[in-house]
Amino acid sequence: MKKLLTIIIVSLSFLNAQTHIVPEGFSGLSVSFKHDQNVDFFGEGKFLRDSYENGIGFGYIYNGTLGIDLTYGYSLNNKKDEYSFNTTDGESSSEEENFNFVKNFRSENANVGDKAFSFGLTYYLNENQSLFEYNPPINLSLGLRYGTKNYSSDALKFLNQDFYGKFYAIEFGAYKELETDANFFMIPRVKIGISNEKNIFDSMDALNTDEGGSVLNENNDTNSFKVSSTYIEFALPFILNNTSAGQPFIEPSIANKYGTTHLGLRFGFLF
Q1: What domain range is 118 assigned to?
Q2: Number of separate domains in the chain
């Protein structure tokens, strides 16, 4: 019986990182695309929120035990119908002219774009390694990830603000192959990521503007804040039989990140 291994990695920018699905002891490549949508099961607003995330991943695994991947993604965060800002009398409270530089800025600002690039390294602990005297009931993985982020919005453009960040994450995964009588097999999996990110923006005191908002001069002072968060995802990949173009797979998922629920669908190929 052919055993297979899935690699579990998360990005906490929470871009969904590349997941490799390869045969035991196999060295190979994987390419995938994922889309996930922010949903509201119990709120009073729309079920499908305007927030979404798209990501492209490229991965390689060596001998079924060590994997690396590169992931690029873009997400849009617009999680409320209305936003509030701390403004003084006479100042505009428009969401296009104000920005909340707070830890939960993704939820407290309108239409925040997030471009991210990350690199991941994962080690796989599975039943075929000589570390075990008996076959464990599940397989495990441990990963590290580092990446950078660049944020954008109409408000940031109006304020002439550079807003960017960097992050690292520790990722834990558990998974188990389930064979079927059909032309595919499944690998139910769960992954948990613990992420720490540092976000940097220009000090508001460092920008001198005219009445039209144009920058007259700029100092190099910056402010920053750190955000720690935990991400959890449940997924059920379906890996199909080999084709002339490679071995296709499709993976529905549900995840909680930054306190909101996301439904995802990923598809790709093994080579």
Answers
A1: 4-37+47-77+113-150+166-270
A2: 1
